[in-house]
Amino acid sequence: MSFELPKLPYAYDALEPHIDARTMEIHHSKHHAGYTNNLNAALTGTDLEGKCIGEVLASVSKHSAAVRNNGGGYYNHDLFWKLMSPNGGGKPTGIFLKALEDNFGSFEQFKDEFSKAAATRFGSGWAWLVKLSDGSLKICSTPNQDNPLMDDAEVKGTPILGLDVWEHAYYLKFQNRRPDYISEFFEVVNWEEAFKRFQD
Amino acid sequence: MKHELPKLPYALDALEPFISERTLEFHYGKHHQAYANNLNNLIEGTSFENADLIDIIMKSDGGIFNNAAQVYNHTFYFMALKPRGGGQPRGKLYDALVYSFGSFDNFKTEFSKAGATLFGSGWVWLVADKKNKLRIIQTSNAGNPLCDDLVPIMTLDVWEHAYYLDTQNARPKYIENFWELINWELIETRFENL
Questions:
Q1: With DSSP H G I counted as helix, E B as strand and the rest as coil, what are the percentages for chain A, rounded to 5?
Q2: Mean pLDDT by 10 residues, chain B (194 residues)
Q3: In this complex, is the C-beta atom of A156 within 8 Å of any C-beta atom belonging to chain B?
Q4: Residue B145: which CATH number?
Q5: Is residue B3 part of an annotated ligand binding site?
Q6: Based on the domain organization, do A35 and A126 belong to the same domain?
Q7: Which residues participate in Mn(2+) binding (chain B) (predicted)?
Q8: Looking at the complex, does the CB of residue A143 fall below 8 Å from at least one CB of chain B?
């Protein structure tokens, strides 16, 4: 069994004007497709062949850099597409909102801290909202395509929200203005999907 | 000491069609400038306030290192480009490349491969070690060879901002274009002054 490029749950232009169609098309059909193909190639002939992505990430420290980079790239982008929606934005409700308030003081404070983690990640990487094993929520960032599911992650847990801050995620529309891209991301966040992940 | 960007020795549109004016407007005018501004802000009131750039690179870490090294790296990159550049180096540098890599074409292939395979943001360098032996290395993010006792001779920026407006995900296409812009005379001088 090999990994296949997941279909986007909406059209390339569905997140306009916040995320432009051209960026979405290249990001999905070139970058994400590249990670998927390279992951399959990197797994061929290893003991991870046929394993699910969760198992691949959970033992990434024992395998090649190609498995780490492309396994992360495959998983992170799949998650990222699901965490955005043309009907997204606003703020979460109920126990999820309460959990964000309990952990970060207020929804605005959560947003500020997450945005800061995304803006200050130097080079390529991701910002994350992670649910730790004790149920608490934490914000962190990882370099390149690393993520909190990797066995050697500094902050380990379930990713609830992830934001791609590789320049390819925003350069065509925002160029050097990463903070503007981060603000636009909050206009399309799929809080329902994030809530599902929070509950699991 | 205020760190200022050198003026580019060519117009922003001079590297067309290989590197677009728009890319240089952002790359030099925004990214490079922001690193210099950030550095000047960060060193204010610290022991690095009056240090020269290389000194800061060798002794700092964190944000000061990142911004100082990015000022240096970009200057080193931009200065060695020129319109109607490219071709091959001559003299001692040519001989040294053939000696170290088998042929100029092999050097070019290896350097391009190092550029294409660097994962994430970073730089590819031709460097000389203490015995003046040439090597190709990759550094992540702001990494700079001086920190490993290596002397930089030429560099290629493979941060996505260096090429994304022009060639998007096709980094190898950008690397091909880079070879058309190299100011070999300047790089020969760097090598001869080792």
A1: 50, 10, 40
A2: 94 98 98 98 97 97 98 98 98 97 98 98 97 96 97 98 98 98 98 94
A3: no
A4: 3.55.40.20
A5: no
A6: no
A7: 27, 74, 157, 161
A8: yes
Which residues in chain B touch residue A65, judged by CB atoms under 8 angstroms apart? 119
**Burial track B111-125 (b if 16+ CB lie within 10 A, e otherwise):** bbebbeebbbbbbbb
**For chain B, what is the domain count?**
2
Do A100 and A195 reside in the same domain of the chain? Answer: yes
User: Which of A122, A126, A174 to substitute to test the interface with B, most B CBs within 10 Å?
Assistant: A122
Phi, psi of A126 (to 5 degrees): -135, 150
Burial of A182 from C-beta contacts in 10 A (0-12 / 13-18 / 19+): buried
Residue A89 lies inside a defined structural domain of this protein: no
> From the list A26, A143, A176, which residue is nearest B31 (CB)?
A176
Q: What is the pTM of this model?
A: 0.97
- My answer on whether A48 and A116 are in the same domain is no
| Residue owning tokens 């920190």 | B147
